[in-house]
Amino acid sequence: NVEIINKNFDWLCVSVDGPFLQILEQPKQRGFRFRYGCEGPSHGGLPGASSEKNRKTYPTVKFFLKVCC
Prior knowledge:
Helix content: under 10%
GO cellular component, one term: cytoplasm
Domain RHD: 16-63
Organism: Poecilia mexicana
Oligomer: single chain
Low-confidence stretches: 1-6
Pfam family, one: RHD_DNA_bind
Order of helices and strands: EEEE
GO molecular function: DNA-binding transcription factor activity, RNA polymerase II-specific; RNA polymerase II cis-regulatory region sequence-specific DNA binding
Shape: elongated
């Protein structure tokens, strides 16, 4: 049971207790290696599971918060 409370934004009021997070895209399995501080800065962002060489994506989440007056 989902109710859209503002059509101008993608905010939803969901019938659950408390806020929750929906994972839309997971990180790529072997796309990122942990680096120690002495190895220098990171080499780019964390790629998403559907990321390809010519089309980069990133891990994505959607946050839901029940707002009732």
